[in-house]
Amino acid sequence: MGPSTIDVRATAPHELRLAADTMRHALLHGPTSDEDWEQARPGWEDQISVTAWDGDDCVGHAGAFRFDTVLPGGARVPTAGVTRVGVLPTATRQGVLTRMIRQVLDTSRAEGRILASLRASEAVIYHRFGFGIAADAVSVEIDVRAARPVAHAAPGEIRVLHAGELLEVVEPLYDRVATRVGAITRSSALFRRYLEDALPGGGAGRVAVHRSADGVDDGFVHYTTAWREEPFRHTEGSIEVHDVWGATSAVELALWQHVLGIDLVRTVTVEERPVDDVLRLAVRDPRSYQVRHRWDEQWVRLLDVGAVLAARTYRPASAAVTIAVTDPLYPDNSDTFEIGPNGVRRLGPGAPADLRCEIDVLSAASLGTVPWTDLAAAGRLVAADPDAAARADDLFAHRPGAFCGSFF
After folding, report:
1. Which end of the chain is more exposed for a tag (fewer CB within 10 A), N or C?
2. What's the CA gap between 311 and 301, in Å, rounded?
3. pLDDT tens digit sequence for 238-291
4. Using an 8 Å Cβ cutoff, are 58 and 19 in contact?
5. What is the SS3 assignment for 83?
6. What is the Cα 113 distance to its own chain's centre?
7. What is the C-alpha separation between 114 and 303, in angstroms, rounded?
8. Cβ neighbour number for residue 314 with a 10 Å cutoff
9. Cα 364 to Cα 38: distance, rounded to the nearest angstrom
10. Its pTM surpasses 0.90
11. How many CA atoms are closer than 13 Å to the CA of 42, on its beta-carbon side?
């Protein structure tokens, strides 16, 4: 086996299950059962899928979901959610991963997707493909008794949905309220995956919806309950929260108030919350909200630099900033862009620039959460003068920070 014998190509429909098992093998999991495959199959059919073949053997896979991502200003732009990436141990170190990722990105650009994002299993791989960390998330544990009461919760009512009504209620509600920068649109296949434990026959998952005083559903929380019993020692419940989305921060706090008020529960955990989570400032005792882990939640890659820069909005600033970007994979992205009160203009690759950087650096700063000044301090760019990065921050910065909240 060698690089010249391995063929990288789009996956045929009848090859998808083999591709899925190859990806699972590469990520140290066993093959799918017939039942699991029937549940997973719609999500595999509705994606970009690229596989590597050594003869009749599938030795690698890379794919991408199709969804939109919210940018500063509210625009939702077509995105490739790179996912399900793996190469079998017998085919590593032969350029297979590079060829598959490149084909996924090429296909995404050909479809008009101007952005790519991913969750990295290893953080040293994706810089070379132009991805940068655009936002972190935190995993949290909450001491319920010390956290209550929650301040500034929106008035209204909470109802717990029946399993049979979940999708018809939650899907359109999410589309209306998930407007935070970095949030993505979710297909029905993704929703079924996320809500699996709350759907009929799924388990102990619950979804509660907040209804405003005006009678409008404006947020939801998805959580799973568990019970721990140690005779003569501890008897207590716990909750794992998976999803919290509200039209406003006050609605989110009302949903948290519901969760933290459930009887018999002492501990609440959540794997994915924004770094600037409003709940931390709203609990009674701030030490009840403990960050267990901070991690790189959202890796972003601009596939069409001009289109992304033009689609987002900027903060009002008195001075423009010029940024020269170099993109080794896609030379048409290598250009100098002026960003300022008059919008975004392409000045040409050789034009003078206040900041010079590679595509992964611009990608990291693109959602307005990672400051240009931090990137400059880390030596990730070249600035024409000491104030250039600060001027870029005046334009790019956006709060609240970017948060995806959808693990894919």
Report:
1. N
2. 15
3. 999 999 999 999 999 999 999 999 999 999 999 999 999 999 999 999 999 999
4. yes
5. strand
6. 16
7. 5
8. 22
9. 37
10. yes
11. 8
